[in-house]
Specification:
Layout lengths: L1 H8 L8 E2 L7 H21 L14 H4 L1 E2 L13 E5 L10 H11 L20 E4 L10
Antiparallel strand pairs: 1-2, 1-3, 3-4
């Protein structure tokens, strides 16, 4: 999907695109983080008699970080901020021609955007988001 989007629109940010200014947490990293936090919480509980008020906050899900490009914020969004959804029932799709590209690709396999809900157990997926282009940072650090 990323290749198709870049072939069709280049490096241009489009109104209706989805973006985040934060980092996307891969599912395996989020699971690892949650396990680490559970271990820390268990160690805290066993090593001290602290109250249940000492709870480590969990990381926000990627969905909570996603925003939509509008005419008003278009100039503030870089192609490095743009994300595309991994199909699922708990994601939003771009509100532009990119959504039609998803629909077209899914239709080739007899699927549609709603095919990933619990009602269709065979394909039930929650979905997620991925940045379409990564930017190298701190290469020498």
């Amino acid at each position: 999907m990323v290749s198709s989007r870049l072939d069709r629109f280049g490096m241009k940010v489009l109104v209706g695109d989805l973006f985040t200014k934060g980092e996307i947490i891969p599912a395996e990293a989020e699971e690892s983080f949650q396990e680490d936090e559970e271990d820390k919480t268990a160690k805290k509980a066993s090593s001290s008699s602290s109250s249940s008020e000492d709870q480590t906050p969990s990381r926000p899900r990627n969905k909570e970080q996603i925003e939509r490009v509008t005419e008003e914020n278009l100039s503030e969004v870089s192609i490095f901020d743009v994300v595309l959804p991994l199909p699922g029932e708990d994601v939003e799709y771009p509100d532009n021609d990119t959504k039609a590209m998803y629909e077209s690709e899914l239709a080739k396999d007899g699927l549609h955007l709603r095919s990933f809900t619990d009602a269709h157990r065979q394909y039930a997926l929650s979905g997620d988001y991925r940045k379409i282009i990564g930017k190298v940072r701190d290469l020498l650090g």
